[in-house]
């Protein structure tokens, strides 16, 4: 029993789809689409050379055209900060004098321990400070 060439191309497309799912690398999907194009060419009676040329042309065209568009789309979406990353850049109110060693602030409705970025600086009760970094359970402010 001899398997037709188009079936081999579809097996190749499925084989390329597996790493696409496992690694989330879209290039595998583009190669799988090229393999499907090779299967269509084989199903329409194209010879092996034409099948390989169609596979290569479709795969390369998708990688050259679609990949940069996807990269631009991915880069243009705003990154959603969560957890302590969302607190960086926020303003806080000083509850207890903050210096280079210790202090307390009210940040996002919660009381945090804090220290200044510059050890020679200090902030008094009631002042507004900007959170620069979160170091464990301590906010670094300026």
The number of helical elements comes to 3
Domains (count): 2
Largest sheet: 5 strands, mixed, barrel
Strand content: 15-25%
- Element-by-element helix/strand order: HHHEEEEE
Which geometry do the CA atoms define?
rod-shaped
| Helix percentage | 40-55%
Q: What's the overall average pLDDT, rounded?
A: 91
Poorly predicted runs are none
Number of strands: 5
Report the span from N to C terminus: 76 Å
Q: Tell me the structural class.
A: alpha+beta
Question: What would you say this structure looks like, in words?
Answer:
The chain has a five-stranded mixed beta barrel with strand order 1-2-3-5-4. It is an alpha+beta fold. The chain starts with a helix and ends with a strand. The chain has helices spanning 5-23, 26-43, 48-76, and strands at residues 91-96, 104-107, 110-116, 128-135, 138-141. Strand 2 and strand 3 form a beta hairpin. It has three helices and five strands; from the N terminus they run αααβββββ. It has two domains: 5-76, no CATH class; 83-141, OB fold (Dihydrolipoamide Acetyltransferase, E2P) (Beta Barrel), CATH 2.40.50. It is rod-shaped, with a radius of gyration of 29 Å. Helix 1 runs antiparallel to helix 2 (26-43) and helix 2 packs antiparallel against helix 3 (48-76).
